[in-house]
Structure formats: C-alpha cells, structure tokens
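G., before I forget:
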Amino acid sequence: MQLSSDNMKRRNTQFKSEIFDLLQQSNHALNHEMITEALNLKIDRTTIYRILNSFCEDGKVHKIIGDDGKQYFAYCENCKKIKNKHSHKHLHFRCLSCGKLECLKQRIDVDLPMGYDGKMYNFLISGYCNTCNAVTE
Amino acid sequence: MQLSSDNMKRRNTQFKSEIFDLLQQSNHALNHEMITEALNLKIDRTTIYRILNSFCEDGKVHKIIGDDGKQYFAYCENCKKIKNKHSHKHLHFRCLSCGKLECLKQRIDVDLPMGYDGKMYNFLISGYCNTCNAVTE
DNA sequence: CTTATTATTGCAACTTAGTAGCGATAATAT
DNA sequence: ATATTATCGCTACTAAGTTGCAATAATAAG
C-alpha cells in the first residue's frame, strides 16, 4: 500500500516541493516529460507520477487527459478559488503547435440526463493558441 | 504513404464493412479492444486502427479520447445530421462501471479567447451511467 | 476473362506512457 | 539516538498505438 490510503501521512521532500513550485509557477498544465525537462534534476519517472498523483488526491492539483492521450497536471489558480478541492468543469486548451495545455476561464454547465452521475470532467479543445496563431499569420 | 493522402481510393473489404456496421449498430463508442471482442474475426490490431482512422478521415466516424487515455470511435447519429462531416462539440459520457462511452445530446457553446483557433473538441464526463447507477441503489 | 495497379492486410519490431513490486533511503515521531 | 514508515530508484512489465515491409486481394484497364 504505497500509493494512497487516506490515512497516509505526507512527508516533505525536495522533489515534492520542486514539482509543486513548478506547477504553481507555470500558467499551464504539464505532463511528465515536461516536468522532467523543466527541473534538471535526475528524478525517476515513477517518482514523478507518484508525486503528481498524491497532489491530485490531496486536491492541490488536477489532472487533464490530453487528446494526445497523455496525462497533464495543472495547479490552476482559477478553480482553487472556487472550493477547497479542485473543480474541473471548465475548458482546457491544448496547442497543437507549441504543445501548451492551459486552463481557460469558460466554465461548462453540465446537464446530464436522468440517472447519470458525473464524477470527472474533461473538457478539452485543441488547436492553435494565440501566440502560435499570431506567428503563422 | 499508406495511411491517408486524400487522393487515395478506398476499396470495399469485409473488415471495413464489418467494423462500420458494428459502429453504426452500437449506440456508443468503441475502442480497439471492444471491436476485437465484438467481431470474432481474427483481425490484426494495426488493421483495425488503420480502418478506424480512415473512417475518421472520411468523416464517417469520430474519435474521442477517453479519460482512460484510450481512443474511442463512434458513428454518432446526432452529429451526422448537422453536417456532412462530424462535429464534436457535444458531450460524451464514459461509465466507470460498465465502460460504455456514449454521445450525449448536450452541445457545448465554445467561446474561445481572442486569437485562439479551435480545431478539435473533446468534451468528456465520466461517472456512472443510468443503468449502472440504478443497479447500485 | 486476363492482367496490371495499388489499396489493404498481417507480421514483426518498435516507441512511449504508465504501473507494480521490492529493497534501500531518508523524513518524521518517539 | 532510535524506530517507524513514507519516499525513492530500479527493474520489469503491460497496454496502446505506430511504422516498415512483403504478401494478398480489390478494382481498373485491356
């Protein structure tokens, strides 16, 4: 039982704070690869995933699945304000050119059919972001 | 150049029609694994992906990335009506219990910030569908 | 109908993402 | 200072999806 179990006490480590700081400073979501590149520490892949997932469990960060199938993680200032835990009922945008995945402000009002119980929300648009779009024109 | 190139002429084959029929008859999206199980033919993984991607290119089917990171493909009657090509600006729902991924009717009005150019849309909620939800209660 | 063209298929090999087990290390509590 | 146990790195694994290439088969041309 390494991963979660709510009664597990978290410990502060260098890697955790480095990763958390990075996410907090970024204005966009990062995947495992981006994190490895950004921090030029030698951290194992598994360690990164474990740390990121623990952040998710603690509600400090949220996970978005990109339309590239990869897991992205975002601190996301906006939704932090709404509640203590993260809310994901807003749009995300992934740029096909620079790869940046960011949280947009637009919230989505969900109206599920009778009997449906929504648990997780993943609203993603991909295309070209304002900076990349400007360059091509 | 096997995959796409718009000037490639499609040929009718057993596998293509079997897969297309299956998608059309299903009221939900299927991934590679589900298709392999449903048709008990011996079709290679690569063949299935190639066929599915060709359907996507031809606009006969659309692709949704599940929050499990897998590619799902749906015929989706609803969006067929709107245009000749598929539109993806509607909600999808994936059941965490039975695994079914279906298109919902609710459309999403997207209002991207200035300078953003949206190309692909992936709106997915996961949770418990009406049938699975009914069972647990 | 026969032949030529080339889309399609299967196979093998590969890449990449993410996970699981386990022993070693190190953060916290006592 | 010591015990507890969360964390880390390593190895190995699974699963998804892709690519190259040779063999097969659907269509077009004669």
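Strands of chain A lie at 30-31, 62-65, 71-74, 90-95, 101-107, 117-128. The helical segments of chain A are 14-25, 32-38, 45-57, 77-82, 130-136.

More on Monday.
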